[in-house]
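job 3f2a | input accepted
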Amino acid sequence: MRLVVLGLTALLMGCTAITTTSTVDTTAPLQSSTVVVPTTGADGARPLATVGCDDPPSEVAIVCEAYTLIIDNYVDPLTGVELAVAAEAGLVGLGPGLSEEALLCAVPAPPFETTCEEAAGAGLDNEGTAEVIVSAMVSQALDPNSAYFDPESLALIDEEDEGEIEGIGALVSPEDETIEGDNKQCSVVSVTCRILIVSTIEGAPAREAGLKRDDVMIGVDGESILGWTVDEVTSSVRGPEGTAVTLTIDRDGEIIEITMIRAEVRIPVLDSELFGDTGYIRLYVFSEVADEQFADAVVDLLSEGADRLVVDLRDNPGGLLDTAVEVASVFLEDGAVVVTQGPDDETTYRVTGDVLVPAGIDVDFVVNKGSASASEVVSAVLQERGRATVIGEATFGKNTVQQRFELSNGGALRLTIARWLTPGGSDFGGTGVTPDVSLILDPDLGAAEVVAAVTSAT
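job 3f2a | predicted structure (458 res):
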């Protein structure tokens, strides 16, 4: 699932993301030659010079870096031919450019010679061409959870990690109805790849303006978003507090325009409250501070007399893998939480030993189709171990792990580096976690109403 908060570049892409940051060794040899070879571009007019990757000039080095990172770290094996074809696909359709200056183009593998010839006809400068090639390699050859972030987009993500952004505060999911199976995630908006509103943040402009779940976004400020990447859409919706943005929405076939004034939006971590003897926790995201706040909320509710806990993960898009392990450890005394499988290794993440909830406390986890990634990790293992009853709708079904790698231009790649399984070997990719008790809850229900519905259903 590719869940993002509009106004954010990505809310960890709804990932169970390992967000450690890495850099690539740009001295690693790929295409060995660094001799600049002047040739003729695809349009027969623009001069083209290609360079290898043992010592690439800074303006094109990210092509070499991205190629190395993908080949070495991506969860599925890819060839130079596949990546070159993907890069060409991103260049086709740009049309002839106006620049007649010689293009410098990096060739990390021999098939990229043809890619560079195609690039010469696009008329972009060296840096722009390199960014298009990197972006196309990722968007055309990798899964939708992998992405290239330019420096501006990366800065927005870093702001998001601090918990405050300027935008409209809406959670969205790009889905393609033509994709078979339950996982319909897509990365480039098209006639069939549509951006759906999943939920809005309390008090944010999107909630106040009346954006609704399953609204389809088709335009921003009067411009169609067809052909845009999801990151481009979210970046365009973000903006300084006090400025206006207009979304064109398809609501059940009716086209409407909704104008909102951007505001500072605080990304909530959790809410908690005691209703009788039932403690309720709404966990919104598995952020860096979420595990500590979750543990504190559990301790407080238990000390206030709760003998049952309802944990609400509806529309929680996930977050940090380590945080998911910590949250699961609140309920499990021993054993594994999740197993990740990469191209060359398998890693088991075990509980921390910091169990807080006594075995006699009943636990219910509430989920829906917007519950993804880290939400699914925790729900799945607690269900498998018989420690919690999962209530609601089938979850999204995102079973991949991402890691962020820095690039020399100030941008970054986020690559899918592994898939995860429950300790018992269950893979929920594409299907999601099936609840023990089916229950569809109105997204606007308050905490007391959710608790009442859950206790009545079990």
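job 3f2a | The two ends are 29 Å apart (CA to CA).
job 3f2a | closed
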